[in-house]
Design a protein that fits this description.
With 70 residues, this protein is mostly helical. It is elongated, with a radius of gyration of 21 Å. The chain has one domain. The model has no long low-confidence stretch (mean pLDDT 82). The protein is built from three helices and no strands.
Length: 70
């Protein structure tokens, strides 16, 4: 069982506010858009890679089925 997810799920509004204020304090207001942009690009690249792997697996399964029918 993943206890980290349980911990994050139990945070209330006040805790999230403190976390956000700490992030603003540590990174500054000008760095946060860069940080979010970097996170967005990372998520986008991960989703593209995941889609490519899924497509390759499906293509391999289709070619395997085609060979079996021949």
């Amino acid at each position: 069982m993943n206890f980290t997810l349980l911990f994050i799920g139990n945070l209330g509004g006040g805790e999230w506010l403190i976390i956000l204020l700490a992030i603003v304090f540590l990174f500054g207001g000008k760095k946060i858009p860069e940080l979010m942009r970097g996170i967005g690009q990372g998520v986008r690249e991960f989703n593209d890679a995941k889609k490519n792997v899924k497509d390759q697996i499906e293509e391999g399964m289709k070619s395997k089925d085609g060979e079996a029918k021949s």
